[in-house]
Structure formats: structure tokens, C-alpha cells
Specification:
- The structure is a single chain.
- The chain is built from 20 helices and 13 strands.
- β4 and β5 form a beta hairpin.
- It has about 700 residues and is an alpha+beta fold.
- Helix content is about 65%, strand content about 10%.
- α5 runs antiparallel to α6, α15 runs antiparallel to α16 and α17 crosses α19.
Length: about 700
Amino acid sequence: MRRGFISMLLALSCVALVAYVMFGFNNPAKDAENVQNIAGNNMTLIEKEIILQHKLKDLLKNTTVTDADLQMYRASLASSENERTENLRGAYKNVMSYKTSAKQKKALERELEAALRYNQKIYNDDAFTTKIVLPIKKQHIKKYYESLKNDDAQLDGIVYKATNTKTGQVFSNEDTTEKAIFSEKQSNVNLNPYDYYYEWYDAPEDVLEFELIPAEDATYDIQWYLPASAKATTKLGKALTQAEQLKLVLQIIQIAGVIALIVALILWWPLRKKYPKLSWSIEVLAGLSLVIGVIGLLIGGNVTSIFTQSYYGSTIDYFALISMWAISAFLIYWLLQFMHNIVYAFRGGNVRERLFSVKFGQMLAQALQLPQYTFFTLFSWFAFFLAGIGFLIVMQYNFNSSILIIYIFLWLVVMLPIMYKGLKHLAAMKQVMDQTNEALLGHKNTALTGSSPLAKHSQRIQQLKMGVDESMAEKQNSERMKTELITNVSHDLRTPLTAMMTYTDLLKNPALTAEEHAKYIEVLDAKTQKLKGLIDDLFDVTKMASGQVELHKQTIDYVQLLQQLVGEHEELATAHQLTIRTQFDAESYSLTVDAAKWARMIDNLIGNAIKYSAPNTRVHVQLKEGTLTIKNVSAYELTENVDELVDRFKRGDASRHTEGSGLGLAIAQSIANLHGTHLVIQVDGDLFKVTVKLP
């Protein structure tokens, strides 16, 4: 609402500016156009009055023929004597061609000779030619004088005084002296009507100036005025009154415009940053601003015409003026919107993003990256344009059979293949859109074949769909494994915790013997240690998986480390009725790792093999070219998904009857990952194989 009011105030300021530019703030009423027109007519009437003071016979008596008159007259006949001679001969020759008798031809020849003599005298005898020109001049002077005398236009209340600049002779109609409300004075006014011309009788297209009054008696100083008593009854007086009224209206508009501009600026200042931001390009905003400017100039011209017409009418056309003002307010409202948005673009530093030319350049660059489609589109446009031109040519020749056959042939050879190619491209686009929709819904879809950009895009959509399907499968598998992890953690933590709670309740019995009390304490300590180990293992694997473990690397003998770890597990292997076999391809092998963590990884792998091996089998520990391989025959049926074996709390014993936390392989995998390598697990029936390559 406030922005609209500001626009109305600015529109009023523009109307006031037009009024000031066209008429000025202190423009006197006598400068009004209608007043000047009437004043000019009065001056013409005064000149007529002075001319009619001269007698016609005196004017005719003083008329002479000048050399310029003679030259003009001769030029009106022909540009030269020879040309007129040839014209005469040609005219008579043409007439003679229609005459058959010798007598008639003889008479025409005598007429031609007389005409040639007459023509020679016109071009060579000035006195002879003067006798021809002088009557013509007098005739037109008389005609002009009579036209002035018969003119009914009279001076309307004007008092004048005309003084001849050479003789001092005075002409005036002044009888009394009154106060003048309008006056003018002109010096050296020439009364000869050089703007009037007369035509030669035989060459109406040629004209000639003439002097009405002798030059020494034709210049006057003229002064005239309108008395105050004639203001209400004369045309000039009424025009002066109307001009004064208009001047008052214009002054009111000008003052109102200045006030409106000040108020508009005061209201605009707090709103200057609250104009809505448009997303249009800067070129569009600038172009629309320019269009509004042009329309504003046209409106300004119309406002000017309203002011100008008001000089001739009785009042200003207020309705038209208000309409122009309302239209200007509407245009200014949008002009402010556009200008503010241009300022926003420059201040926001995103000029390039708002320039249509930049966007068009980027669009063109992207289009040129697919020249196959870009050039086909441009060629299609050009071909259809030529087809339209060709149809116009066929129509121009009224469907001439030869041209029509050529046109139809070109349609069959050029236009139909283009249309087929275009429809094929549109069909392919529809297929890709349907393919995308099917992929979004999760349905199976078929990609386009071929090597076109659209076909390649379709194939990439197919690949993306396959990737999404695989990702969804992995996600579902991850959710299932997460559920199993929570179940396994709950089971493994609850088992020792339940035992601890049970034996704690038993210890509360005061009737326990010392032997029973010691036994319960021993069991409770074992369960506590198991729970502590389980929690420590879980903490270690979580910490290593998050990469928060710092490695302290050093160079060790890989073979010696393996021999030491195998020796430590000999007793456990014997207890499980197993035999450990070692095979090393070198007596020593240098390895730079974190010795403690690398030893723990191998310890977990060997311990895991012993724990889950079938009785009376062998565990093989091999080191070949730095690659460690541990193999054993599992006592339990293994899952085909070997990746699940390294999950946390996952055991080869699905019934979870064996001891352990189920984190052995997970910890080993994390340690390998920390050193830049990984475990490779292979299952072939009951054969379980773990391979660790050098980091």
C-alpha cells in the first residue's frame, strides 16, 4: 500500500516536471502558443492595412521587369534557345505527319518559321521579352491587391502604429491612449510578399517572385498593443485570460510535484530494502525499465499535448490528465521494483548468476557438448524455415507443376527423414522418462541400446538402478546383522551376569559352610573375569574400528614371533586333541609392525582355529613370501557368507556353547586394517582358511 502511494507521489512529480520543462515556472502568459498565434495573425492584418494605404495604380505604375524575371520566364519555356527550337521543330514535324496535302504542309512550314523567329527574339531581345513579362506581373499584382482588399478579416481591438523607416511616413489607427495589457514591437518589417508567387500562363509548374511595393517604400517599424478595455471582448484578450488561468494551474501542479517528491523520498527511505526480490534476469529487468522509460516519454508527450490543447479550449482536460497520472503511477511502481532488484543483484555479488547472457552462454556451452542433438535441432529449424519459404515460392508461381514436383521431392528426401529422426528422438526421451519412473518405483526396467548420448544416459540409469538395488540389499543385510549383534551381545553379557547374580544370592545364605562359600567365591570370580574380558574385547574392537588406536611400530622377526605363539598354544591344542603343523619358507623374516597388536591378531587367529577345530585334526600355520595362512577343519557347519564370521559376537558355533566372546576375528580384522591390510577368509566345506598379507 505504501509502495503504491509512493508511486503516485512520484508520478505527480513527473507530471510537474513535464509542466516545468515545457512552460517554465515563471512563464508569462503572453508566451502562450494560442496568444502567439493570434498575435501573429494581428501582425499580418496590420501589414494588410498598410499595403492597402497604397493605391493600386501607383503600385502598377512602379512595376518593372528585372533581369531575374526575364531569366525565369525563358527558363520556364526551356533551359536554352536550342532546346526550345528543337521542341518546336519536333512538335510541328509531328503535326505534319498527319497532313497529306502539300498546301497544308507548306502552311505549317511557314508557321514553324514564324515560331522560330519569335523564339529567337524571346531569348535574344530583352525589350521584346519585357513587353511579354510586364503585363503578366501587373496582372498578378492586381490580383494579389484585390485579394487583400476583399479579405474580410479585421483587426480585433488592436491599436497599431507603423512608421516608414526611409520616409518617416506614419500609418496608425490610434485615437485614444489606453493602458496596454499586451503589446509587441517589430522593426524593419518588409511588406513585399516574397512568399507569394505567380505562375506563367504556359508553364504552371514554374513560379516567380515579385515586388508589390518599391523597395525604398516597403520597410516599416510596427508597434501595436491590446487595450485593457478590449480584454473581455477580443480573441486575444480571451486567450490571455485562459493562458493566465493555465499558468496558475501549472504553478499549482509544479508546487504539488515538489512537495510530492519530498514526501515520496521520506516514505521510500525506510522501505528501500523491503521491496520483493524477483528472480528475473538483469537483462529482462533492464529491458523492462527501458520500456517503461520509453512509455514514460510517450506519456510525457501526451501530457504536453493536454497542456497545449488547453490553450485553445476553455478548461484543462482533467480526466485525461488524471488518467495519465494513474498510468504513470502504475509504471513507476514496477520501475521501482525492477531498479531495486538490479541494485540487489549488484550488491549481492551474484551478477553473473542473474545475467541471462551468462546463462545463455552456459546453456550454449552445455548444448555444444552434445553436438549430435544441437546441430540436428539447428538444422531442423533451418530446414523448416526453408520449407516455409519454398511453399511461398510455390504459391507465388500458382502451384506450377514443375516447381511443385521439386518441392514435393525435397520434402520426401529432406523433411520426412528429419521428421522421422525427430520423432525417434522424442520416443527415446519418453522411454528414458518411463525408465526413470520405473526405477523410482523400484520396478525392473530395460535400458536403451546404442551409443547415442541418450542411450548412454539410459544405460547409466540402469547401472544406477543396479547400484541402488545392491545398496538396498546391503542395507537389509546390515539391519539383519545389527539385530543379530544385539541378540548376541545380550546373550553373551546376560550369561555370566545371570551366574554372578545367582551366586551372589547364594552367598547371602548364612548357613553356608566355609567350603561352599569358597567354592561360590571362586565361581563368581571366574564369571566376573569372563564378563570383564568380554567387555574389554568389545571396547578394544570398537576403539580399533574407530581408528583411535595409536600404533607403535618396530621391526621384529616374523618367523620367531610365529614360533613363539605356536609354542604357547601347544598345550591348548593337545587339550583339544589337535596337532599344530608349521611351515616357513625362510628361517627369519623382518617385519615392521606394532609387535604387541600384531601378536594379538595372530594369537586370536590360532586360538580361534584351535577352539573351533574338529578333534583329531591338524591346524596348519604357514608363512610363504611374507603371507601368513592358518587352516583348520571346523567342528561346526560354517555359513556360506564368510563376511559374517568377522562380525562382532559372531561364532562358528551357532549354538554358542563354546567359550569366548565371539570378537576374536573382529579384533584380528581391526588390527589388520590398522596396519593397512586385511584378513582373507575362505571356506571350502568344513575347511576354514585365513590369509594375512603383509601390510
